[in-house]
Fold this protein.
Amino acid sequence: MYTSFRAEQSKESPDIISLQVSHCYKTKRLMNEFNELNQKLQIVIEAEESEEAIGKEAQHADEYATKYHQTKINLSIRAEE
């Protein structure tokens, strides 16, 4: 989904509706994955895992959040053009 969004976005005249639909699906998927990572992080913390393991899971969550926000901002910019 992210790849198709990026491909459409890179076009000279992207289809805003396609981008918005893609963003909706991407948002849903990323939120599900983010929630799963959050639950996994909570299990790692409760199991008193090493700080390295906790940091690794937190980094994955941050990466998902970053992708979401990048996509949202790019879509907003395109919609304003």
